[in-house]
Model the fold of this input.
Amino acid sequence: MIEFCQNLLVPESTKVQKLLRLDPNLLRDLLPKSPVYSKDIFVLFDYQNQVVRLIVKSIKYKNNANLRKRIALYLYEEMMELSSEIALFEGSPPLLVPMPMSQKEKRERGFNQCEELVKEIKKIGGENIIVSYNTLKKVRETRRQTTLSKEERKENVKDSMMAGPLPRAGHLPTVIVLDDVYTTGASLDEARRALLDAGAHRIIGLFIAH
Done:
């Protein structure tokens, strides 16, 4: 009901409506794949593509529920491939956490799009997905990253995150950090530092686009 009211108040653009009419598998095949190839960084799509940018912005700034569900399905499929490999070699599945926002950022926007995506992934995967919304927290306000250089981004987010106790006592899990856009990797590096300090042994970044 809430999603229905949101869509009435903020009508989807014609382009978004057309995207949602496409078969999910067809849409995924049509969107350009990300050029990023890295051991612990997994990115679905190329942000240079206009349609990909539209999707990300619709989720990030308008909290578009229908597109969020569609992208969450793709992220879930990617995560299942990762999880099966991790569980095979490490004996347990990874922990999924959203990239955090500060309280001020979340209050101003009204939501954390990464949290919303994790919630959708959890709905799809059920008990197959282990999530935590409080393990990784942002404890210091930072400037908007979009206007900063690579070095400035690193300095901007330095020591801005903290990780609480990991939810599985006696085990040092792999943690997958979900974010929307991978640019310089500064935020992921800071999340990795905080999580490793808390006892995780491997950190993987999962993103919609780069």
